[in-house]
Amino acid sequence: MPKDVADAYRNTTSLSFDIFVQVMMRNLGSSAQSVRAMFSPMPAEKDGFPNPHGKPLGRLARELHTTQLYPGENLTRLDDKFIESFDDQLDMEKIANTNYAARDQKGGLTVPLLRWSSDVFIRAGQVAYFGDLLGVIDPNLTSTFLEFDNLSWQILFQYPRIVSRRMHAARERLTAVIEKYFSVPVDERGESAWFTPAMEHEMRIIGISTHDIATMMTTIYWGINTNTRKASFWMLAYLIKHPRLLEQIRHETEPAFKGGGLSVDYLKDSCSLLDGVWNETLRHSAFSASVRHITEDTIIGGKTLRKGNRLMIPYRQLHFDEGVFGEDADDFEPARFEKDPKLLRSASWRPFGGGITMCPGRYVAKESVAIFIAIALRRFDIEFVKGQVFPQAAEGTPVLGIMNIQNGEDPLVRITPRPA
Question: 306, 299 in Cβ contact below 8 A?
């Protein structure tokens, strides 16, 4: 029940998220020493990011994330990097030179939609956070990440290594490249997001090795890229499925390009239909669950949760509650949230989790996907190739946020340039 979920989020004493994070860190290759260091109190008086209460870095990290990702100068710089990257990548000749695009005789290109949106977003996220150096070290890093991310559900299920070797091999290749990045002196790496050197500085203060820094930042790379690529895919897929809606979004976002650039503020403040499509896309595609370790017997919803067990809070059932979202809850209805704005404040609306673990990346996720959609629709006509069907979601596979698709379900789309 939504009330039980809210009660669980408010309980920060006997329901622990820290234990879940520590288990994940170990499963992702962090040493026992680095896990202990991340969750040991730091000195209140230190250089770097303010920490007057001496929080462990494992908790202070959220404040670094919010400094980077909440509305303000640092987020604006990230948006600018996404605009720059999408402007560069959403080019017919550059798309044609990828290993997944095929030309047709009428001047169009055929691409698998998820592969295309994933490639574009991973490259953009990588550059936004780390600059160009990672791509110089390994130009194929995006493919390595995709191999890892598509198997990363094995981490959430805590598969033993013997049956998850492919996933771990991809993760280790990814970490090795990131370790090379952090072995380069900071002033020789080029531009990066504020967060990247700030987090590195805090980790070095508590004695974490370069290898363990790379392991930790591999999880950051994962978090940056796993959900935005899939959210952009689902949003574009729904628009292609509904051509009239696609045209309406194209018309609504066009004024954002006045003046020669792209106004993110216009996309945020003046595109209510785009906002509705985003919210409805999340409602249909968000499939994560929050996990808490029960450190003391706890009563939630009149039931006693016993110490030593785990509590899982799935969101998908909340998002399809007909008592909240109506009898048409199974339908894709972009006007749903505009007709009833209270839904955005409902305890049943949890696309980014809740409580102290609510995803701090929700602003940049929304803004970067809006930027991608606006540029793509302005430059291209996009349609499903004849015979392609709307993809089926992999509902049985756990994810950190947005659902993947069933194997073999990546739909082919045809893109053609629009008149300038």
Answer: no
Quote the CA–CA distance of 49 and 122 in Å, as a whole number. Answer: 28
pLDDT band at residue 333 using 50, 70 and 90 as cut-offs: very high
Structure token digits, residue 42: 């730091």
The token pair at 191 is 């531009």
Amino acid 163 reads: V
Structure tokens at 285: 């595609």
Residue range 304-311: mean pLDDT, rounded: 87
The phi, psi pair for 239, rounded to 5°, reads -65, -40
Both tokens of residue 322? 């007909």
Amino acid at position 327, single letter: E
pTM above 0.85, yes or no: yes
52-85 in b/e form (b: 16+ CB < 10 A) is: eeebbbbbbbeebbebbbeeeebbeebbebbbeb
- Give the C-alpha separation, 403 to 230, whole Å: 7
Structural domains of the chain, ranges and CATH numbers in brackets: 2-417 (1.10.630.10)
Read off φ and ψ for residue 414, nearest 5 degrees: -110, 125
Judge contact between 378 and 257, C-beta under 8 A. Answer: yes
Picking from 195, 192, 193, 182, the residue whose alpha carbon sits closest to that of residue 65 is 195
DSSP readout, 36-101?
A: HHHTSBPPSS-SSS--TT--BHHHHHHHHHHHHHSTTHHHHHHHHHHHHHHHHHS-HHHHHTSTT-
User: Cβ atoms within 10 A of the Cβ of 365, count?
Assistant: 22
Given a contact cutoff of 8 angstroms between Cβ atoms, the answer to whether 403 and 393 are in contact is yes
- Position 172 scores a pLDDT of 96
259: three-class secondary structure by DSSP: coil
Q: Which of 64-68, 114-118, 237-241, 256-260 has the lowest mean pLDDT?
A: 256-260
Backbone phi, then psi, for 17, in 5-degree steps? -90, -25
3-state DSSP: the chain helix, strand, coil percent, rounded to 5?
Answer: 55, 10, 35
Work out the pLDDT band at 67, boundaries 50, 70, 90. very high
For 299-312, give the DSSP string: EETTEEEPTT-EEE
Percent of the chain with pLDDT over 70: 100
Measured CA angle at 287 (ends 286, 292), to 5 deg: 120
In the DSSP assignment, the letter for residue 416 is E
